[in-house]
Every structure is written in C-alpha cells, then in structure tokens.
Amino acid sequence: MQAKFWKKAGIVTLLLILFLFDDVLLFFLLKDFYDWHIPLWWLSLGATVVLALNLGLAIVVYRIMRKKPVTGSAGLLGETGVVIKRIKGDGKVNIHGEIWKAESQEPIKVGEKVRVEKVEGLTLKVRKINQVRK
Q1: Which string of b and e fits 100-119 if b means at least 16 CB within 10 Å?
Q2: Do 62 and 77 reside in the same domain of the chain?
Q3: Is 133 a domain residue?
Q4: What is the domain-level CATH number for residue 93?
Q5: How many whole angstroms separate alpha carbon 57 and alpha carbon 32?
Q6: What is the DSSP letter of 77?
Q7: Closest CA to 119 of 82, 75, 87
Q8: What is d(CA 126, CA 115) in angstroms, rounded to the nearest whole number?
Q9: Residues 62 and 14 in one domain
C-alpha cells in the first residue's frame, strides 16, 4: 500500500516540478526577450498565481489517481445493492441497475440492502447491511 502511495506522490511531485519550471522560465524569458521592464514584484505575483494553479491541478490529478477502479470485479467490492430474489444460499441482487447472482451465509429477504464482500466469477458474496434506526 505504501509503495503505491509513494509512486503516486512521486508522479505528482514530478508533474509539479515540470509545471513550475516551465512557468518560471517563461516569465523570465518574456521579461528579458521583450524587454518589457516589468517590475519584479509583478513577476513574483504572476509566478505565485501560476504556482497556485499548478498546485491545484496537481491535487486534482492526485485525487483522480487515488480513486478506486469503477470497472471489473474491484469496482464492485464494497458497493451496496438491494435483494430482488430472496437469498437462501443464493439469490439475486440489483447493484447500479444490474442484476447479479448473489450468495450469502445467512438468509436475506427481498428488499433488504446488502454489501458486496467478494466477487467470484459472476457471483457476488454479499452480507446484509444492519440498519440502525435513530
């Protein structure tokens, strides 16, 4: 788990360095090349704004990379659904508008909510969600 974190953190850091380097270089090249005589504090302010935008972009990219997959069996783990055919050993559940064969160690009635614990082929291992009323 930590290896994945450091790999992603490294990618985000590398992107941030690349974004920062080219933006700072651009400011100084424009100042020297066009000889605009722009005050240094304006350049510093512009560089700070661009740095903030790039940091925001890096954070967005990191959050997108951190999301769990939404396809395949890994995308179903932890999802909730509703029983549409009584589960007594096996039955059927509706998850995101799709009907799946489901198995459980305990009987679960129609209409009750379940959580996917494991995926084996096209069969979901589910567990009843205990709803606490307030």
Answers
A1: bebbbeeebeeeeebebeeb
A2: no
A3: no
A4: 2.40.50.140
A5: 28
A6: T
A7: 75
A8: 5
A9: yes
List the domain range (segments joined by +) for residue 104.
Answer: 73-128
pTM over 0.85: no
Measure the N-to-C terminal CA separation of the chain; round to a whole number of Å: 36
Judgement on whether residues 61 and 82 belong to the same structural domain of the protein? no
The vertex-73 CA angle with 70 and 77, nearest 5°, equals 75
pLDDT along the chain (134 residues), means of 10: 75 76 71 66 79 84 77 83 93 93 94 94 92 49
Token digits for 116? 């996917």
For the residues of 12-61, what is the DSSP string, one character each? HHHHHHHHHHHHHHHHHHHHHHHT----HHHHHHHHHHHHHHHHHHHHHH
Asked if 61 and 12 touch (Cβ cutoff 8 Å), the reply is yes
